Input
Amino acid sequence: LLANYNDIGVSNFHHNIERGKVGITLEADTPTLVESVIIEVDLSGRVLKQWNMAAIISAAMIAGGDDPHQFVYPAPNDWFHNNAVTYNRADDSLIISSRENFLICLDYETSAIKWILGDPTKKWYQFPSLRKFALTLAPGSLPPIGQHAVSITFDQNILVMDNGQNSTFQVPPGEQRGYASPRKYKLYLNAKIATEVWNFELSQSIVCPFCSSVYEDAPLNYLIDYAFVNGVHPAPENLSQLLGLNAAGETIFRYQYPSAPCGVAYNSSPLHLENTKFPTVGPQALNLSTRGVVSVGDNVMIGGFIVTGIDPKTMVLRALGPSLSGFGLSGVLTDPVLSVYNSSRTLIATNDNWQADPGHSEITANGLAPANLLESATLQTLGPGAYTVIVTGKDSTPGIALVELYDLSPLSKSKLANMSTRGSVGAVDNVLISGFIVGDVASATVVVRALGPSLASFGVSGVLSDPTLTIYDANGSVIASNDNWQDNINAIDVQKNGLAPPNALESSIVLHLPAGAYTAIVRGANGGTGVGLAEVYELD
Output
């Protein structure tokens, strides 16, 4: 229970809970309206925005010279029957599935109607004020009727679960097909044309008049949920069916189980676990590193990390440059200098050449001696708190460098909860690369972020305007990627943990990882360049 919404007239909730622009959307009843009010709330339950479909459609009909009393009705009449809502970030709009009528798209901010897609034999099409928003169906395309779920595909097509059911309230009720099929439409909004580009009719054999869903997972991979199969027949014939299709159109799985109509899973979304392993003990970040370009001014490499807990933590910090040329990199930093500051900005350690550090023998004993004498390393035992590491070039020389942090006391009652690195993001070799190693002692989930635009508020100039983030495993396989954080399936988890990036163009990913080595690469979208920040957070 998020909150009590009686104060805004909500008497009941129903159907799908969907991701909105910022929070989640809820489909509500009021004492005067049935299934035709939508609210968006944040994670605390605070109402962010409301859409009263009766008021919105009535206003459009009045403006177009029609009488809304001929189409919009008060409770207990179910004239609209809102089944699902999806937010389209590409044009800042809401697409709403009205089972009794159509798909309707609203401008998120103004609530203005942008387009309508539906069966022209239904009642709504008789009103010129609504007909003017209608998309014309291309030859050979069927309109969605009685549809439930609606979503946006990877290539900005509209995907709906067409239940094939005519209106149970409006007259004329429109076409009655008697079978269900998912359908995908490509919209040509300038021409006001909708073309059906995919369906899965299964020989028109599945009777499923209500509920149900379809979502595109990877491109052209679909999860179909028939939640009301044989729902017109008495039990025990009623069942639900989940169906998976791959890009070749092959059925990957079909799972059927007895169910009351819409009684168990009337809406199913893909959930991936193949890249998630659950060890007997959780992960702990033992090593964190970032590679980037070191220059001067705002363009030096700045790393930050937080030690949480009650015990001091022993660690080795390194700054590498010359040895990177052995990995095929050109333009490396020839002589890196490493400086460590506490949260009071007091310098607590500095090193130019690693053999000059008082802890160089222990650094060597732990196998962490840099390959080049000009590289930097320092052994430090630090209490809980926030720390900053700055890598510069001796005599202000520029070049590609690697800053690293190794935890030598993983069993202490403290842990590395966060490491971040700020540096220049360029092209090709000059992207910002952050690596982290996950060990096999108890810890938790990892959140990785890539920031750019929000750095300007801290006085940083030339920031990366639109960062992208990609995560790789030790084999070089991509396990996750994100451009804009609100588009990530785990966006709500990021918000709940207080880690939502300040700017919508910034990136974040939630990961549940087994032991191993991982790499996060920050690039600029469309080849953009500028100062970016890569961050790794370990959650409790």
Notes: The domain at 284-538 is CATH 2.60.120.380 (Jelly Rolls). The radius of gyration is 28 Å.
